[in-house]
Amino acid sequence: MTFDDAERLVVDLYNVIVINGRFVAGGLPIAPQADPSDGLLDAVLVPKRSAAELALLVAEILLGKHLSGDAVVFRRVKKISVRSQPGMWFNADGELVGNGPTVFQVLPRALDFVVKQR
User: Fold this and answer.
1) Which residues is 87 bridged to in the sheet?
2) Could you give all domains of the chain from N- to C-terminal order, each with its CATH number?
């Protein structure tokens, strides 16, 4: 992985989560401090762990405490490039989108939103 074309990381991972919001899978707070308006992506990398360690990590995620320890690798970046050996499948909101080397990046003002003011 390469973060913002600067930091390079080589690590065995169980999962790679690149997100612009706080929640995945119907409400799991995987990136509790994420801000969709900050121009950054939150990258949560889950290293390969034993089944027992993964079970503990799930509990930490449910409590929103997983970023405070060393159970995951966390970065807040504008761009992340991912290359895997062997290749891994990527999905966007549950839909498979490819399995080759992939780049995730923020594209400022790429979408227009209508937001109701409170």
Assistant:
1) none
2) 2-105 (2.60.200.40)
pTM: 0.81
- Note down pLDDT in tens along the chain; length 118 residues: 999 999 999 999 888 889 888 888 877 788 888 998 889 999 999 888 899 988 888 888 887 788 887 788 999 999 999 998 888 888 887 788 888 788 999 887 787 878 888 8
**Residue type for 64, please?**
G
Q: Determine how many CB atoms are found less than 10 A away from the CB of residue 80.
A: 23
Dihedral (C-alpha) 67, 70, 72, 75: value to the nearest 10 degrees?
60
Burial class (CB in 10 A: 0-12, 13-18, 19+), 55: exposed
